[in-house]
Amino acid sequence: MDARARISKLVAAAERLADGEDPLGREARARLPDSTGLSAENIELALTEILETRPSASELEELMTGAVAAAHVHVLLSSNVFVAAHRAIACALASSPRVTVRASRREPVFPELLRRASGLFEFAAELCPEPGDEVHAYGSDATLAELRGTLPESVVLRAHGAGFGVALVGEASRRAAEELARDLVPFDQRGCSSPRAAIVLGSVESAREFAQHVSAELARANRRIPLGRLSADELAEMARARSTWTFAGELFETGSSFVALDPMGERLTPAPVGRNLIVVPSRPDLDWLEARAAEVVTIGVAFGSELEGLARKVAPSARVVPLGRMQRIPLDGPLDRRPTLVAR
């Protein structure tokens, strides 16, 4: 089976999980709320709108062109975005017919169902690469640094660490706020494409107007797709951020989350996960974005090719997509296009 056939078979397996009438699709909907902590509504959104089940021929061609052939690829998965296992395994299968996966202990359900539907890869409790193998690793920077120190010599590590998304807005419109809310809700903002800051080109008044629009749209979205279970650490970080922005800026509550205005744009602090957002007014040179560019994975641009060009100039490694599509990235390779840590 060649790479195209392997990836096509994996995509067909993902289609089964997206289908609520398929037995595996029903099982996914029954088990994933418990393993992910997401609401049932958020699980449904991810399976039917975000899981990549309809890649174009050109996207698959780009995925395969970017892959480097390997005898054996080992994949270390993160638990933050459960459907991300599909893309990670597709990238591994583009490189090798032999793929071994170590699922996150916190979220093993989706990769298990994908394996049962495809039969294309195997599981391992621990990854044991041999010289000449590749390891594709997804996780926190600390986890990846620790992993690097344990790999045998001549093992290639392609590491994808922590990052976040940024929205770039030229006009503080309700339409832009509605599209941004679409990007905030999936996975309760845990993904590296999830926007955690919005930069508004213009005055503090424009940024304040946009923050108000987003808070209203996000409040509506939170009622439609409830926030899921947050960890004690996540709740504590949200509480600290609320306290900070109550005194350092302006806070707009959305029920279970918040939108904060940073009027000076000096703290360079993205919002904590849990569907929260920091809104920053910025000069045309995008100083806030430039200062955090190494951490930015995706930039959502609101309705303007001029903004798109600015984003690519300031953060050349980030994916630049239309606002509202930050969680809906083509299956054309790893989501994170920042330089990966590669060791031999």
Provide structural commentary.
The chain is of the alpha/beta class. It has two domains: 3-160, Aldehyde Dehydrogenase, Chain A, domain 1, CATH 3.40.605.10; 164-322, Aldehyde Dehydrogenase, Chain A, domain 2, CATH 3.40.309.10. The protein has twelve helices and twelve strands. It has helices spanning 3-18, 23-36, 40-50, 57-65, 84-95, 109-118, 141-148, 174-184, 204-224, 232-248, 287-291, 305-314, and strands at 73-76, 99-102, 122-123, 134-138, 156-160, 164-169, 195-201, 250-253, 258-261, 277-282, 296-302, 319-322.
> What's the CATH superfamily of the largest domain, by name?
Aldehyde Dehydrogenase, Chain A, domain 2
CATH topology of the largest domain: Aldehyde Dehydrogenase, Chain A, domain 2
Helix content: 40-55%
Uncertain segments: none
Seen as an oligomer or otherwise, the chain set is single chain
CATH structural architecture of the largest domain: 3-Layer(aba) Sandwich
- CATH class (first level) name of the largest domain: Alpha Beta
Overall structural domain count: 2
Instruction: Summarize the helix and strand pattern as letters.
Output: HHHHEHEHEEHEEHEHHEEEHEHE
> First CA to last CA: what distance?
28 Å
